[in-house]
Specification:
The complex is a heterodimer. By secondary structure, chain A is of the alpha/beta class. Chain A has helices spanning about 1-25, 30-70, 90-100, 120-130, 145-150, 175-190, 205-220, 240-250, 265-275, 300-315, 340-355, 385; strands spanning about 75-80, 105-110, 135, 155-160, 170-175, 195-200, 225-230, 255-260, 275-280, 290-295, 295-300, 320-325, 330, 365, 375, 395. Chain A folds into 3 domains: about 1-20 and about 35-60; about 75-175 and about 300-325, Response regulator (Rossmann fold, 3-Layer(aba) Sandwich), CATH 3.40.50; about 175-295 and about 335-395, Response regulator (Rossmann fold). Chain A has a 6-stranded parallel sheet with strand order 2-1-3-4-5-12, with helices on both faces. Chain A has a 6-stranded parallel sheet with strand order 10-9-8-6-7-16, sandwiched between helices. The longest helix of chain A is centred in the N-terminal third of the chain and has 40 residues, at about 30-70. By secondary structure, chain B is mostly helical. Helices cover about 70% and strands about 0% of the residues of chain B. Chain B is built from 12 helices and no strands. Classes of the chains: A alpha/beta, B mainly alpha.
Chain lengths: ~400, ~300
């Protein structure tokens, strides 16, 4: 209303001035009248300028108020494949959720233990219908259901972890866990006496194979004689089988047990036998204090904040993200006191080198189990090559089948 | 494979066979009374959770073990009520109890995931554990392993020599005749179901108290079903159940060790071994047409006439 009033005033003033100029342009009778009109004109001009200024200021205030009203609460949903209390994969994601939950204007909620497939689609649909602004789905099998839901709800941003599909409103993200695994391999290689490291692994998929290879390369970097024996459990989450698998590795002489599972079952087996172990996902030292050396861990919080900010500012881009240690998304948990100081120092120096980009974990020459060169000397493999890794490097005993 | 590997393999076979042995013995008892119970898996997981919660709350693993038996029997009581009182279909009731047990344990157990509880640890039997080879295999196990072994002759004595056991078998073979002879069919079937549920609960407790000391959803991981299959393999005889359970546990432990040694066989194939064995055993036992060993009235409900 006020704005209109001001505009009307300005218009009136301008009209008046024009009329005056027109009327005086006709035939100035005498200079005194002309002078008076000029003066009047000048003062009116001044008034116009001051009103204009006032108008600008009010406009600015109005804009600010509009902006404030626009920043509404950002609703963020998370979908986990396992229960959060498992100290594993979903636990790590939930720590990330809690991190962004603390931010102003962000509310989060989650659904845990959602089976991959149609059930997950239902959960996502439900969240999208409730006008969630941003939905994170944190398991590979959620990819296609998420893509389907994303097409139906163009105003919601969808984020899928560990997959490879994107859409206009759906991005995918993952972390270079192999970098932290390399460091944990260095610790294991330095601590082993039998030169045999055991690795309890879930499924022979590139993500896991890449981790085993990086672990092996790390171990060999400090101990060229180190060998890594792999046992597949074909399950992400079965502590009894995982423990049994770890025991079978201990029986063949492994004295450090690493793992790519979701439970601390392997840690328990190592502790009972009195040997060392390397955890995964989150610091598992509470489960096996006398055995746990360190763990490659996920740290999703800062990345989730980045996504939230991007969605808020409207700068979100649905591009695949594969961040490494330089973004803090993966890390090595603090090493136990059992790891000697010089080993810790060497590992931290390597971490620095990887973080700064000075060093690449997979840097040619890398040979596979048969001795064939898979990555030529001095070559840094493309991401696509790493994402499709399906062979074991030299020094791994086991099969990828 | 040398002896250094075979000794721990056999020790592991006994350990991973023990939960299955408890459940198989329980199912033998239930089926001998003429009731088919497909709810073993549900009873095992309920027992496992009950044991875990009790051990965590009280710090007494022995008490936890007994509580697990009670809870297994409680699930069994549902089966008994459905099948004995309401003459419900035994197959459907059993399947429903498996689904119910797994769901209940998931629901109640989710907050406990990843936590630990005190349990049974291995103890060496004085002197005997020094015997080379045999010592580490047989005499360095936890007490529940010995409990399961002891249960084998006990069940055999009960079924073969004890009056109650004979009555229970009579009820399973020919309930009408047994009833005519003045035996209460319902009472013995109640005993069969509750006893079987209790043993299945013990089997579950072994998983959460001795095998691991952790809780996780789906801890039983299909072991209840293996037990149901092993009953047929065992021809309903406790002694053969021991053999079957340890054989199964052995194959399970064997395939993991085969991988650890560094074989180049695909791991998917090795993982199939225990289940291939189950199928082979089922085929073998029906081929030998030993079905005569099955209780004649297995799965048949009887109208309560009293």
């Amino acid at each position: 209303m006020r704005k209109n009033l001001i505009s009307a005033l300005v218009l009136l003033a301008m009209l008046g001035t024009c009329l005056m100029i027109l009327s005086c342009g006709e035939k100035p009778e005498d200079t005194a009248a002309l002078e008076q009109l000029k003066q009047e004109n000048a003062s009116l001009q001044e008034q116009i300028a001051s009103l204009q200024k006032e108008n600008d200021e009010l406009k600015k205030q109005l804009d600010e108020l509009m902006k404030k009203a626009e920043v509404k609460e950002l609703q963020v949903g998370f979908i986990y494949v396992s229960p959060v209390g498992d100290a594993g994969w979903s636990y790590a994601h939930d720590q990330g959720r809690l991190f962004i939950d603390k931010l102003d204007g962000v509310t989060t909620s989650y659904v845990e233990a959602v089976p991959e497939g149609p059930d997950s689609e239902r959960v996502m649909l439900n969240m999208a219908r409730k006008n969630y602004d941003l939905i994170f789905a944190t398991s590979f099998g959620y990819m296609d259901p998420m893509l389907k839901v994303a097409q139906k709800f163009p105003n919601t941003i969808f984020m899928h972890c560990s997959g490879f599909k994107t859409a206009a409103n759906m991005g995918n993200y993952f972390g270079r866990m192999y970098q932290a695994r390399y460091l944990s391999g260095m610790v294991a290689g330095a601590m082993t006496k039998s030169n045999t490291l055991g690795y309890v692994a879930a499924f022979p998929i590139p993500e896991v194979i890449r981790g085993i290879n990086a672990f092996t390369l790390g171990a060999q970097a400090v101990n060229p004689d180190a060998q890594v024996r792999v046992v597949w459990t074909k399950t992400w989450y079965d502590p009894a089988t995982e423990k049994e698998a770890a025991k079978s590795l201990l029986d063949v002489g492994a004295d450090v047990i690493a793992q790519h599972q979701d439970s601390p079952g392997p840690q328990e087996a190592a502790q009972e036998k009195g040997v060392y172990s390397i955890g995964y996902n989150s610091d598992m030292s509470a489960f096996a204090p006398k055995s746990h050396l360190c763990a490659p861990v996920w740290n999703w919080g800062p990345y989730y904040k980045e996504v939230v900010d991007a969605v808020r500012n409207g700068t979100f881009e649905p591009k695949p993200v594969w961040y490494g240690m330089e973004h803090g998304i993966v890390d090595l948990s603090p090493m136990s006191d059992m790891v000697p100081g010089d080993v810790q120092k060497a590992v931290l120096a390597k971490k620095e080198a990887i973080t700064s980009g000075q060093m690449q974990v997979f840097m040619g020459p890398v040979k596979d189990q048969t001795g064939a060169v898979r990555i030529p000397d001095g070559k840094i493999p493309e991401d696509g090559e790493l994402l499709g890794m399906d062979y074991f490097v030299q020094g791994v005993i086991g099969t990828t089948e | 494979m040398n002896t250094e590997l075979i000794v721990p393999l056999l020790a592991a076979a006994i350990q991973s066979g023990t939960p299955i042995l408890y459940a198989t013995l329980g199912e033998i008892l239930t089926e001998k009374s003429g009731v088919l119970n497909l709810g073993v898996e549900g009873m095992m997981i309920t027992g496992a959770l009950a044991a875990f919660v009790t051990a965590q709350a009280t710090g007494h693993p022995a008490l936890a073990f007994l509580v697990a038996g009670l809870f297994g029997a409680a699930i069994g009581a549902i089966h008994a009520i459905v099948c004995l009182w309401f003459l419900g279909n035994q197959v459907v009731s059993g399947l429903a109890l498996t689904i119910f047990g797994l769901g209940l344990a998931d629901y109640l157990g989710t907050p406990l995931i990843g936590q630990t509880a005190p349990g049974f640890n291995k103890l060496a039997v004085p002197l005997l554990h020094y015997i080379p080879g045999l010592g580490p295999i047989l005499f360095q196990q936890d007490i529940l392993v010995y409990g399961a072994i002891l249960m084998v002759p006990l069940l055999w004595l009960f079924l073969e020599k004890c009056r109650w056991g004979l009555n229970l078998r009579a009820v399973g073979e020919n309930p009408e005749a047994a009833a005519a002879a003045g035996i209460s069919v319902l009472r013995y079937r109640w005993i069969g179901i509750l006893g079987g549920g209790c043993l299945a609960g013990f089997g579950g407790a072994y998983l959460s108290l001795a095998y691991t000391h952790l809780w996780t959803n789906g801890l039983s991981a299909g072991r209840g079903w293996i037990a149901v299959a092993l009953v047929i393999f065992a021809f309903w005889r406790p002694g053969r159940a021991l053999l079957g359970a340890y054989l199964f546990g052995g194959v399970m432990a064997f395939q993991l060790r085969l991988q650890a040694v560094g074989t180049h066989l695909p791991s998917s194939l090795l993982l199939m071994l225990p289940y291939l064995l189950t199928v082979a055993v089922l085929v073998f036992s029906s081929w030998k047409s030993k079905q005569a060993d099955a209780p004649a009235a297995l799965g048949v409900n009887m109208e309560p006439n009293d």
